[in-house]
Design a protein that fits this description.
Layout: E1 4-8, H1 15-27, E2 31-36, E3 42-44, E4 51-53, E5 56-57, E6 68-71, H2 76-80, H3 84-95, E7 100-103, H4 107-112, E8 120-121, H5 128-133, E9 137-138, E10 143-146, E11 149-152, H6 158-169
Parallel strand pairs: 1-2, 1-6, 2-5, 6-7, 7-11, 8-9
Antiparallel strand pairs: 3-4, 10-11
């Protein structure tokens, strides 16, 4: 059964951490909606290899209309965490117990939403202390599943990350 997946995105995302999971989701028949600050905005990945156009603006987009959330890494999550609407969207998805997949720096948005306490998670190395300080149990594994969360560390983990996300959606 096809699911509707929200992708919260800002400029400077990690190219493959956006493109690989999005392609895997689409290949599995899921609908992917890229949500940014504005609709129709073209966002570039930090490596310049991938560009993404936003399908919807965060303003007026209701999290209850989505089945899961994807937060790609790179520097995008650091931009997203300064927008209270993005933070509120992510928090609402967690509170609704919907799958939330965050790779690399993606957990930065979840830290800002104050939803990681007591959860077992992983991330890019430089985010782990922040996760720990926010109350998460931090481990160094390719993919970690805990409650609504699916977390991974780097682009090298994308095969396991994608497989875990697709399995959760099935």
């Amino acid at each position: 059964m096809s699911k509707k997946i929200a992708v919260l995105l800002a400029k400077d995302f990690e190219d493959s951490e956006f493109s690989d999971p999005v392609q895997a989701l689409k290949d599995a028949g899921h609908e992917v909606i890229v949500i940014g600050a504005e609709k129709g905005q073209t966002l570039a990945g930090k490596n310049g290899d991938v560009k993404a156009e936003t399908d919807a603006a965060i303003e007026g987009t209701d999290p209850s209309g989505f089945d899961a959330l994807l937060i790609p890494g790179g520097w995008s999550p650091d931009h997203l965490r300064t927008d209270g609407r993005m933070v509120a969207f992510a928090k609402a998805m967690v509170e609704a117990d919907k799958p939330v997949a965050a790779v690399c720096h993606g957990p930065q948005l979840l830290i800002e939403a104050d939803v990681v306490r007591g959860h077992r998670m992983t991330s890019f190395e430089s985010v782990r202390t922040d996760l720990r300080n926010a109350g998460a149990e931090v481990v160094d594994e390719d993919v970690v599943l805990d409650g609504p969360f699916i977390t991974s560390r780097t682009p090298d983990d994308l095969p396991a990350f994608n497989a875990a996300l697709l399995h959760r959606l099935s």
